[in-house]
C-alpha cells in the first residue's frame, strides 16, 4: 500500500492466540433489495467435500436468519410484524416477535441517547416522500406533511412494554435505517457462536462486521470510497471485532424542480434533510448502531454532527458537500485509530 495511504486500526487491539489454518469459504446472495456476502475462515484444514458441506450448511443458516428479519421488519411485505403494527388504531398494541423486539428496544434507546437525531418512527414521512412501499402522491408532502410531523411530536412517543409496542398517533415504525446493520450483527454473531470458525466477515449492502484475522495474520481491511470524492489519502480501516456502516444523500434520491431530495429525513420536519454533508461512515462494535448513527449524522449537518460525534465519542468520517473546505473530517474518536503502519 502506498505510504500516503492512511491506516485506521482499533485501539486496544488484543493479539489473537493463533492464526487460523483452514480454508476460506465464501457465500452470499440477495436480500433487502441488495446483496449480502460472508467470508468465513476455518480454524483447521478440512477436505474439499467437508468444506463444500460447511459452505452449503452455513449459507442456508445465514439466509434463514436474514429471511426472518425481512419477514418481521420489511414494510414491503404485507402482513409483516411492522406492517401489522403500523395498521393498528391509536392506543392498541402488538406483541413483537424476536428478534424484532430486541431491535426496537435498541432503536428506542438510541433515539433517547441522540436526543431524537435518530428516530425510528418516521414511517409516514418516508412513505409520503416515496421512499417506502407507497408511491409518492402530490399533496402528501410540504405543509401537510409538516403538520403531520408537528402533530406526531406533540403526542406521547410510542412505549415498549415488555414485547408489546403501543401505537401512538402518527408514529409509523420504520426500521430501514437500522435493520440492515442489525441483520449483519445477527449473522456474524451466529457464526462466532459456532466452533471451528477462526475468522468471519459479513456484509449486507455495504454494511460490514469483521471478527478475527485472516490466513495472512492480517485483520479484515475496508477501503473507504469517500477518498476520491473528498480528495484525501486512501483510507483503510481494520475491522478487528468492529463494524462499519455508511450513509449518504446520493444513495436513494430523486430530483424535482432542480433540487435533489434524499431519503435521509430530518426528524424535526419530516422533510428530506437540508444538510451540508454528503455522507458519513461510522465505526462501532455493533453494526446496528453504526448503521443508525451514520444516517443520523448526515441528517444533522456538519456542525451538529461534529457535536454529536464528540459527545458520544463516535469514530466516524464526515464528508462535506461540494464546494466546502476540508471535505473529509475525522472525529477525535476516529483520529485515535490512526496509525502510520
Description:
The chain has 341 residues and is α+β, with helices and mostly antiparallel strands. It has ten helices and 17 strands. The chain has helices at 48-73, 81-86, 100-113, 123-128, 143-154, 179-192, 227-230, 287-300, 302-311, 332-335, and strands spanning 6-8, 24-31, 34-42, 93-95, 160-161, 164-166, 197-204, 207-211, 220-223, 235-239, 242-248, 253-256, 259-262, 277-284, 316-320, 328-330, 338-339. The protein has an eight-stranded antiparallel beta sheet. Helix 1 runs antiparallel to helix 6, helix 6 (179-192) packs antiparallel against helix 8 and helix 8 (287-300) packs antiparallel against helix 9. It is globular, with a radius of gyration of 21 Å. The mean pLDDT is 88.
The tally of beta strands, per DSSP, is 17
Regions with little confidence, pLDDT below 50 for 5+ residues: none
Beta strand %: 15-25%
Helix run count: 10
Provide the structure class.
alpha+beta
Distance between the termini: 10 Å
Given the C-alpha coordinates, what overall shape results? globular
> Describe the biggest sheet?
8 strands, antiparallel
Helices and strands, in N-to-C order? EEEHHEHHHEEHEEEHEEEEEHHEEHE
Rg calc: 21 Å
Q: Could you tell me the mean pLDDT? A: 88
Strand order of the largest sheet: 2-3-7-8-11-14-15-16
Helix content: 25-40%
Amino acid at each position: 500500500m502506498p505510504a500516503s495511504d492512511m491506516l485506521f486500526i482499533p485501539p486496544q487491539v488484543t493479539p489473537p492466540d493463533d492464526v487460523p489454518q483452514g480454508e476460506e469459504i465464501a457465500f452470499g446472495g440477495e436480500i433487502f433489495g441488495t446483496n449480502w456476502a460472508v467470508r468465513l475462515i476455518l480454524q483447521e484444514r478440512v477436505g474439499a467435500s467437508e468444506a463444500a458441506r460447511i459452505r452449503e450448511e452455513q449459507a442456508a443458516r445465514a439466509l434463514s436468519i436474514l429471511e426472518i428479519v425481512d419477514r418481521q421488519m420489511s414494510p414491503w411485505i404485507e402482513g409483516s410484524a411492522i406492517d401489522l403494527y403500523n395498521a393498528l388504531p391509536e392506543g392498541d398494541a402488538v406483541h413483537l416477535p424476536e428478534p424484532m423486539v430486541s431491535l426496537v428496544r435498541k432503536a428506542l434507546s438510541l433515539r433517547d441517547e441522540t436526543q431524537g437525531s435518530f428516530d425510528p418512527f418516521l414511517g409516514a414521512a418516508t412513505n409520503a416522500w416515496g421512499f417506502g412501499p407507497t408511491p409518492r402522491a402530490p399533496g402528501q408532502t410540504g405543509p401537510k406533511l409538516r403538520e403531520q410531523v408537528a402533530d406526531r411530536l406533540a403526542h406521547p412517543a410510542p412505549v415498549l412494554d415488555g414485547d408489546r409496542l403501543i401505537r401512538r398517533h402518527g408514529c409509523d415504525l420504520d426500521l430501514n435505517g437500522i435493520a440492515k446493520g442489525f441483520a449483519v450483527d445477527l449473522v456474524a454473531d451466529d457464526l462466532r457462536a459456532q466452533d471451528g470458525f477462526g475468522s468471519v466477515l459479513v456484509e449486507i449492502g455495504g454494511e460490514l462486521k469483521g471478527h478475527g484475522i485472516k490466513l495472512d495474520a492480517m485483520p479484515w481491511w475496508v477501503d473507504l470510497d469517500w477518498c476520491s470524492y473528498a480528495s484525501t489519502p486512501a483510507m483503510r480501516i481494520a475491522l478487528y471485532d468492529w463494524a462499519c456502516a455508511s450513509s449518504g444523500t446520493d444513495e436513494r434520491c430523486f430530483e424535482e424542480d432542480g433540487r435533489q431530495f434524499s431519503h435521509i429525513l430530518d426528524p424535526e420536519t419530516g422533510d428530506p434533510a437540508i444538510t451540508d454533508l454528503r455522507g458519513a461512515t461510522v465505526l462501532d462494535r455493533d453494526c446496528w448502531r453504526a448503521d443508525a448513527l451514520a444516517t443520523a449524522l448526515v441528517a444533522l449537518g456538519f456542525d451538529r454532527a461534529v457535536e454529536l460525534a464528540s459527545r458520544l465519542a463516535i469514530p466516524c468520517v464526515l464528508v462535506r458537500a461540494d464546494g466546502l473546505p476540508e471535505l473529509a473530517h475525522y472525529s477525535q474518536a476516529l483520529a485515535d485509530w490512526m496509525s502510520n503502519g
